[in-house]
Automatic annotation (TrEMBL):
Belongs to the PPR family. P subfamily. PROSITE patterns: PPR (PS51375). The keyword Repeat applies. This is Pentacotripeptide-repeat region of PRORP domain-containing protein. Keywords: Repeat.
Length: 453
């Protein structure tokens, strides 16, 4: 139950940590390894590394209790440091394995390289691999991790080709994983010729293609709209005992949707269901990208849930961006509230997309409201939007001051005008009085003259 609650509030580290501490104080409960790992992952994701390390020290158990810290515990910290591009601390955490008396072998080193490459620190990972070649000898797996980083994390065919040549230069053999990585890179770049050339090269070297290789070739053929060749290759896969999986179908559905061949994509979707394969969020995302109205989007969202695939944060971000582009802000806020109600949670990326959409469409007050909410949750704002909103607030404050000054000036002018008007009226009355003819009679009495009262 604790893990489930932590999963629901994972985007609000304060709530999660308060609940974790409360649960830990109960006499009938002691946190398990899985629960510690969930809490450490939440804290590290929100950059609360000191608190995460305090939990790790607690896991050590002191003199009396058992030590719950495992290599996986430290690997969580390594991955979060890599996600923040703090390579130095990630490497220091790797060296902390010895402090906890864990064995540090080639597998642990490969885990470090994989974490670095996964979060696009590929250049640092490659440098680290060559610097430690005396301790951890270069082999095919080490190079494959770096190659896959350049191919799929960075998507740089030039760097991938350089690593490929470096492997040959150092006498490190290419295996099926190497071919799958570089063929996937060329496939995403729509370079069908190089994909087919490498596929033929594999056959000549008697390296049996695996499902990933077939998926890369199928994706490249589908993007080039070679439908017949795709069908033939699917038959070859099945003859070789490699049945198509969800990734295979996704490799077909994505380019078909992009090419606006929606009917063919839907046929493949139905075929997936008939074969008992469950569509993933990536499958639905391909269809979401080509929708042109809100009704279809919510209908597909409903169907997605009905078939057991729950929308992720990326799903909501895609739809919020789409509805913002259509200026349908009722649907934007509907999705935003749904994210909170369904427990998906609003993270930094979702706030940035929402604020960006509101700001660009002139909803500046709403944008600023969510911007302040984002800062309260201690999410780091996107620099460009941050600067634009700060400029807008400064401009608004200046405009308010100008308007206040104008209003005060208008009040002063009105008061002065009233005073001038009163004085002018009085002066006019006095002036008029001098011009008026004498209307009172002169009364003579006893030798004197008087004006009649």
């Amino acid at each position: 139950m604790v893990v489930e609650v932590l999963s629901r509030v994972r985007h609000d580290w304060e709530v999660a940590y308060t609940f974790f501490l409360w649960a830990g104080k109960r006499p009938d409960y002691a946190p398990s390894l899985r629960e510690y790992h969930s809490m450490i992952s939440i804290l590290a994701k929100m950059r609360k590394f000191d608190t995460a390390w305090a939990l790790i020290d607690e896991m050590r158990g002191g003199r009396a209790g058992p030590c719950l810290v495992t290599p996986q515990t430290l690997l969580i910290m390594i991955r979060r440091y890599c996600a923040m591009h703090d390579v130095g601390r990630a490497i220091n955490t790797f060296y902390a394995y010895k402090k906890f008396k864990f064995d540090v072998g080639i597998e642990e080193f490969h885990s470090l390289l994989s974490a670095l490459c996964r979060y696009k620190n590929v250049q640092d990972a490659e440098h680290l691999m060559f610097c430690n070649k005396g301790v951890f000898p270069l082999n095919t797996k080490s190079f494959n991790i770096i190659l896959n980083g350049w191919c799929n994390a960075i998507r740089s065919p030039r760097e991938a080709e350089r690593v490929w040549r470096e492997m040959s230069k150092r006498g490190v053999s290419h295996d099926v994983v190497s071919y799958a990585s570089i063929m996937s890179c060329y496939s995403k770049g729509s370079n069908l010729n190089k994909v087919l050339k490498l596929f033929s090269q594999m056959k000549s070297m008697r390296i049996e293609p695996d499902r990933k290789v077939y998926n890369a070739v199928i994706h490249a053929l589908a993007k080039a709209r070679h439908v017949k060749e795709v069908i033939n290759l699917l038959k070859v896969m099945e003859e070789n005992g490699i049945g198509p999986n969800v990734v295979t179908y996704n490799s077909l559905i994505k380019p078909l949707c992009k090419a606006r061949k929606v009917d063919e994509a839907r046929q493949l979707f139905d075929e997936m269901l008939q074969k008992g394969l469950s569509p993933t969020t990536q499958t639905y995302h391909a269809f979401f990208r080509i929708l042109r109205n809100g009704e279809d989007a919510f209908e597909l969202l409903k169907k997605m849930r009905k078939l057991g695939c729950q929308p992720t944060n990326d799903t909501y971000i895609m739809l919020i961006r789409k509805f913002s582009r259509w200026c349908q802000f009722d649907n934007v806020f509907k999705l935003w509230n749904e994210m909170i109600e369904k427990g998906v949670g609003t993270d930094r990326s979702s706030y940035i997309v929402l604020i960006h959409g509101l700001f660009l469409n002139g909803r500046l007050d709403d944008a600023y409201k969510y911007y302040m909410e984002m800062k309260e949750k201690q999410f780091l704002p996107e620099p460009k939007i941050d600067q634009m909103l700060q400029d807008w607030v400064s401009g608004k404050q200046y405009a308010d001051r100008v308007m206040a000054d104008l209003k005060n000036n208008q009040l002063l002018d009105k008061k002065l005008n009233n005073q001038i008007r009163v004085q002018s009226k009085k002066h006019d009355q006095e002036k008029d009085f001098l011009k008026q003819p004498e209307t009172r009679r002169v009364v003579r009495e006893r030798g004197f003259s008087f004006q009649e009262q």
